[in-house]
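Dear colleague,

Thank you for sharing your sequence with our group. We've completed the structure prediction you requested, and as agreed, I am returning the results in plain text so they can be pasted directly into your records. Please verify that the sequence below matches your submission; if there's any discrepancy, let me know and we will rerun it promptly.
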Amino acid sequence: MTIRKFLQLVSSGVILALPLAAGAQTVDVDARGKQLVLHQDVDLTRKQQRRLDRFLKKADFYGALAANVTDLRDEAFGAAWNKHSLKAATSIAMDSCRHKAKTPSDCVLLATVVPENRTKLPPESQMLSARALREYEYMLLERLDAPNAYFAMATNMKETWAWRVSEKSLADAKTKALQGCRENVKSGKKGKPSAWDKATYKAEHDVCRIRAILMPR
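Please find the predicted structure tokens below.
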């Protein structure tokens, strides 16, 4: 069974034939839901279909799924989701597939996961994961108690984030948010990295940047 036929059975109505184009130039804080963008339509074994089904149930934006078209073992897959960057999710999924497959060069990008309510994607620098958007909404609630303060959220390109609330200056909010993000990245690396960690690691994915700020009203 091909991917397209399988997806039509398990997730009708969420398949796009083509990747989305870049669009808005502001932080995409209103993204909701999820949809799957199909990039390759290849035959899957039953084990691979089960792997894809698990991915569909767990994955939220931004995510990616890769598979090897000649190595049909169940483990010759790569997946990433809930990232703050589609570029990072795609890179991790592809590198994961290459790490586990017998023929790394035959790994292809099968699908990506993006917000359901978007026909155009924001620039990479403005993306927030579904999880980070929930934290951003919590930051908005905190702002109700401190309307004259500064707030900032920082993330890397993967899943790490940090925010500062109720600061007296924008500089303090941004500095402390970045510091918190970097500390969270560092704490997430405790212990010896696995072979998979090394295979999928890219330094640029761990660089923390300010993604959202709230100014005094």
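Summary note from our side: Confidence is low (pLDDT under 50) at residues 12-26.

Kind regards,
the structure core
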